[in-house]
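Page 37, continued from 36.
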């Protein structure tokens, strides 16, 4: 991908992210963060909501972390690809992923964790170890699911005989166990294994996820296993194992699997460039199909509000939980009603954001 094409795409992307952040009503997850959570994402959301008005104010920190993630991913790609055009293409694919677009425009813990993961890998590969302990401490305190990250570091350190990494990762894991921190595991097996594939398909887009799965498997069998692969594969494997027993939250695993875009493009380049031009045709066609579906997924997210308003039955739209309370509030306020009762706790939080409280509370 040429530099000028990438810059045009980046400009359009920034405009699309800002448009989504300004026009998309508060989501159920954001409403819960705002009124019923106390993690770092909730603190940032509450502070920005207090000081910056509107939907954009809610998400200003998360937009920043989203753009920071793209810049760090580009810097990481520069180290993995000899050609700058490949780094541009990898970054273009990365920023078009549905998971990146939505995470950059809606408050969530994942987009805070992602730049820390990218920064750790980047500094580790450069040999700049001074700041690594601080990044690890930040991940430890910010994200309960970062136990996955420390397990991956332990595996990598053991395979490549990095004694410092083994000691540090082991120490953090022991603290996780001592404090009983980490991902909650419990309940009876409920069979969410099929569901997890649907979640990853929405995170990557369906065809990109298929290639992600292929890349993880191919490298497992006979590829070079670098730090990114250990982090991504460990998170992916843990999510599959846990999904057999319980429902998982994608924000626990997404920050650790998304950097694998570097590996995916590297695998594709290796597959196509070892072949003569006449045998590259089908690979290129497959790439164009995958990119077409990725662009379509990105367009659906960017113009989801228009699609919601056009649908004859909005209840079937994936964003109904965002827009149903929003349009309900508009209808209530047009009638001079300032209270409403609902059985959904998260919907009550959404209505509260718009100034609509429970009628039972007012009595």
């Amino acid at each position: 991908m040429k530099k000028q094409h990438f810059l045009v795409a980046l400009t359009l992307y920034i405009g699309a992210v800002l448009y989504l952040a300004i026009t998309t009503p508060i989501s159920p997850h954001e409403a819960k963060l705002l009124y019923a959570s106390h993690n770092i994402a909730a603190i940032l959301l509450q502070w920005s909501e207090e000081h910056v008005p509107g939907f954009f104010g809610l998400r200003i920190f998360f937009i920043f972390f989203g753009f920071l993630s793209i810049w760090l991913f580009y810097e990481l790609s520069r180290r993995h690809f000899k050609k700058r055009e490949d780094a541009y293409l990898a970054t273009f694919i990365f920023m078009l992923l549905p998971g990146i677009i939505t995470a950059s425009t809606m408050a969530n813990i994942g987009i805070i964790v992602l730049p820390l993961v990218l920064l750790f890998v980047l500094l580790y590969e450069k040999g700049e170890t001074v700041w690594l302990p601080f990044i690890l401490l930040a991940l430890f305190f910010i994200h309960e699911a970062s136990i996955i990250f420390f397990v991956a570091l332990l595996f990598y350190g053991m395979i490549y005989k990095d004694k410092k990494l083994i000691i540090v990762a082991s120490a953090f894991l022991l603290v996780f166990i001592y404090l009983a921190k980490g991902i909650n595991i419990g309940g009876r097996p409920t069979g969410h294994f099929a569901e997890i594939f649907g979640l990853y398909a929405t995170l990557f887009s369906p065809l990109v996820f298929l290639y992600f799965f292929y890349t993880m498997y191919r490298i497992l069998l006979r590829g070079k296993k670098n730090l990114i692969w250990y982090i991504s594969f460990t998170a992916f494997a843990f999510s599959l194992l846990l999904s057999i027993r319980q429902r998982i939250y994608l924000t626990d695993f997404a920050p650790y699997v998304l950097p694998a875009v570097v590996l995916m493009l590297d695998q594709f380049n290796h597959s196509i460039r070892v072949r003569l031009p006449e045998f590259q045709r089908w690979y290129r066609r497959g790439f164009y199909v995958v990119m077409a579906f990725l662009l379509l997924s990105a367009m659906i997210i960017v113009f989801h509000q228009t699609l919601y308003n056009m649908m004859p039955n909005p209840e079937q739209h994936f964003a109904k939980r965002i827009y149903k309370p929003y349009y309900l509030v508009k209808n209530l306020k047009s009638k001079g009603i300032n209270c409403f009762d609902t059985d959904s706790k998260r919907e009550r939080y959404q209505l509260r954001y718009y100034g609509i409280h429970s009628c039972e509370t007012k009595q």
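The two ends are 62 Å apart (CA to CA). Flag for discussion at group meeting. The first helix runs from residue 3 to 23.
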